[in-house]
Amino acid sequence: MAAQRRTESMDFLIDQTSGVPYYRQIIKQVEMAVADGRLGPGSKLPTVRSLAVELQINPNTVGRAYNEMEIRGIVNTQQGTGTFVSEKTIELTDEERGDILGSMVRTFLANASSYGFTAVEIIEYLREMQEEQHK
Prior knowledge:
By secondary structure, the chain is of the alpha+beta class. Helix content is about 55%, strand content about 15%. It folds into 2 domains: about 1-85, Arc Repressor Mutant, subunit A (Orthogonal Bundle), CATH 1.10.10.10; about 95-135, no CATH class. It contains 5 helices and 5 strands, in the order ββαβααββαα. The strands form 2 sheets. It has a 3-stranded antiparallel sheet with strand order 3-5-4. The chain has a two-stranded antiparallel sheet with strand order 1-2. A hairpin with a 3-residue loop joins strand 4 and strand 5 (about 80-85). Helix 1 crosses helix 3 (about 60-70) and helix 2 packs across helix 3. The longest helix has 21 residues, at about 95-115. It starts with a strand and ends with a helix.
């Protein structure tokens, strides 16, 4: 089961079955969005309360993620104004991106196989989806 929240230029998604703490999932998603340009310097993040409500998680969890990102210099919090992406450059290696994608795919495949779908069926479906997008 996953909860989702869309901001100006990215979606937040919490995978409740991954075993990765929610605050770390939020941090990694912001880091990836900064690294690939979906979030640029000055981009405003949702408030702690609004993101917690949308993701159906404890506000302290979102606050922990925001605090850790502020300590790392990824975001700046301005009291009464909000939390904004800093000027810090974040680059993820191909290995880091591969690890993240691998984790996501393994979780997806485990869920799909629990419903009886095979890898071959999934690959075929993905090919069809890709063809539809390129029409």
